[in-house]
Amino acid sequence: MRIAYSVTTALLLTGSVISLVTGNPVTAQTAVPVSQAGLAPAGAPNSFADLAAQLQPAVVNIATKQKVRVATSFNPFTGEQRPIEREQASGGSGFIISSDGYIVTNNHVIASGTGQNDEVDSVTVTLFGGKEYAAEIIGRDVTSDVAVIKIKAKDLPFVEMASSQESRVGDWVIAIGNPLGLGSTVTAGIISALQRNIGAGGAYDRFIQTDTAINPGNSGGPLFNLKGQVIGINNRLISPIGANIGVGFAIPAEEAEPVVEALRKGEKLQRGYLGIGIRPVDEDTADSLGIAKNRGELVGNIQPNQPAAKAGLMEGDIVLKVAGKEVTPEQTLSYIVANIKPGTKITLDILRKGKPKKIDVVVGERPTEQEIAQSNFNPDEEKDFQGDTESSDAKVIRDSFGISVLPMDERIARQLGMPADQKGLVVDIVGRAGTAAAKGLRRGNVIVSANYKDIGTTADLVAAIKEAKTAGRRTLLLGVKPQRGATQYVAVAIAE
């Protein structure tokens, strides 16, 4: 950087000389390319070493353990079946926010393999110096994917959280964490985008995007600015190979901090909800109605007995504003509503059949993410895998077959036109390159059995996969029930 500044200075001096000789002054109004406009980066460090040395002691490694069912034993004399369990280890990163041992991480780091709503059996925190502590889970929030744990220790080094809204695209940032189980690792990069909507939906689909190397194991760790403040919690990556390709995402600190404080105090988190299925207004829809593209969201379906239905919102309505705030890709309807206290009366600015209209609605309380996914299940919707926040069971199923699944319930059964008491796992996402896709499985299919054993939970399917692998089999015979017709039996390869 010293060379760059020297060259810039030389160019400025040269410009002055040319001005004096030719008589043509170089003024502020002279049009020049941005690269020549004196925008040399101020304060770009020669090294991150001092900052890293200061911050590393406040970043921790988090290891978890849980017992999972891997197979079932059968006693031919008694006819009894008993689960065979083994201990499964996982982990991630976190950072200390107080000298008495409060630590922030991602919920999925400490979520059980049976789902995001369940906890692991034990959590162990390892400090930078190698000292280990058993940790207590203080609070968890599935929706924001934020959790707070605590260790019994005093006088610990800690870091502070600061709003990312003061940051700019192009600012330097560093990530510290425990990628791929290697131990404390420091990586550096820049902010690639702010308030990035990655299409995951929900109340917290706004991320800091960075090219800083983030890999599995970095989850829950801090993303620092050059002041040493945590501006984001490393959360997920998008990659066709499952490892860093320079597209990582962090939860903005200003979004996480209120959740952290509520969890520390043991308060219940309440978020607003209208009870509608929505999608962005695409360019063709905007053109047909004569409105600006990337403005508003189209109401696809309305849940009965929910706030939107009670207020008279209709399918096909386009919501342009919520409580006076414009609905845009960066400020989605879900995000605005989720941050409104339940019970609040608000006004929606909508277009109905091309004509503007205002509707007053009383905001309800947002259900869990799984309940929302189940209530809004549309078998014709196309969905993609997002991030690495899935549970360990979900990861096994995805890695084995290239699919994700949801537990069947009465609401999904109704939307699929199946009996209310239908059992099984509903296929939610089908990866195009997966072995399930190659066998014709599609969204809305229901997996009812594996090698003729009934499947009711993700743990059942994972146990069947592991049992087949233990027996040396390369495929699993799945009983798959389509929306209409009889159950079909499909031998699906288990990917290595």
UniProtKB/TrEMBL annotation:
Its main location: periplasm. It catalyses: Acts on substrates that are at least partially unfolded. The cleavage site P1 residue is normally between a pair of hydrophobic residues, such as Val-|-Val. The keyword Secreted does not apply. The keyword Hydrolase applies. Keywords: Hydrolase, Periplasm, Protease, Serine protease, Signal, Stress response. SMART domains: PDZ (SM00228). Residues 259-354 form the PDZ domain. The lineage of its organism: Bacteria, Pseudomonadati, Pseudomonadota, Alphaproteobacteria, Sphingomonadales. It comes from the Bacteria. InterPro entries: PDZ, PDZ_sf, Peptidase_S1_PA, Peptidase_S1C. Its EC number is 3.4.21.107. This is Probable periplasmic serine endoprotease DegP-like. It comes from Sphingorhabdus arenilitoris.
